[in-house]
Design a protein that fits this description.
With about 230 residues, the chain is an alpha/beta fold. It has helices spanning about 1-20, 40-55, 85-100, 120-130, 155-185, 195, 200-205, and strands spanning about 25, 60-65, 75-80, 105-110, 190, 210, 215-220. Helices cover about 40% and strands about 10% of the residues.
Length: about 230
């Protein structure tokens, strides 16, 4: 409905943008059906938000739930509400890199996990991964058991959080250049090992590491430390 869509932006969104809102997070409007056969409502909503944002002098930015294959054209994709745990962290590391094969490369995860999770070590490791991923965004459910503020996890975890954020800020020029290259050449920021080494079988199995741009190798820790306090890869 063109009239509804016009009012949706003109009356609801534009006044808030004039108050200082820079971009929108489109959440929970996903589905598989609409009044138009074959049209996913979230994919179309992403298109509308993006084209509306193009009227502004700033470069458009949109954070959205994943609308399915082909839906990476517009949004920085939000990967969903995971339950905090070591398996979920390991999956997100592999997922972020390997989905490059299908086109989506700009992933935004709920760093720390969305539901539950009060393990300071797990929280610190998730933050370290977030610092080396397309977006570093702490987010949890509105629940005391899903707290994500760094100072709620103890002094050691807070120190790790500060270091992760500081690293992220130092990397901004590098990350900016790598993302710019991604726009120009279609290369992801987080590149699975098989992308640069397609003939190496070991590259297909290296699920816990990826190239961050073309000059850094990232290997986030995705399992707890052993009895001697040391964490190791697979």
């Amino acid at each position: 409905d063109r009239t509804y869509a016009r009012h949706y932006f003109d009356l609801l969104h534009h006044p808030l943008e004039r108050d200082g809102v820079d971009f929108w997070w489109v959440d929970w409007q996903h589905g598989t059906g609409s009044d138009i056969p074959g049209l996913d409502p979230l994919a179309w909503l992403n298109h509308l938000h993006w084209t509306d944002a193009e009227r502004r002098p700033e470069r458009p930015l949109l954070l959205s739930r994943w609308p399915g294959l082909g839906g990476h054209r517009y949004p920085f994709a939000f990967s969903g509400d995971v339950v905090a745990g070591w398996p979920a962290l390991a999956f997100e590391v592999r997922f972020t890199a390997d989905t490059a094969g299908a086109g989506p490369v700009q992933w935004s995860h709920d760093i720390g996990g969305h539901f539950f999770g009060d393990d300071p070590e797990l929280y610190a490791r998730w933050l370290q991964f977030g610092a080396l991923s397309p977006a570093l965004r702490l987010h949890g459910s509105r629940d005391d058991r899903s707290e994500r503020l760094p100072w709620k996890f103890g002094e050691q975890a807070e120190t790790c959080a500060r270091e992760a954020f500081a690293l992220r800020y130092r990397l901004i020029p590098y990350l900016y250049a790598a993302m710019r290259e991604g726009i120009d050449r279609g290369l992801p920021l987080c590149r699975p090992m098989w992308l640069d080494h397609p003939d190496e079988r070991s590259a297909l199995l290296a699920h816990e590491q990826y190239l961050l741009g073309d000059r850094l190798l990232a290997a986030p820790i995705v399992r707890p430390a052993g009895p001697h306090g040391l964490a190791a890869g697979r």
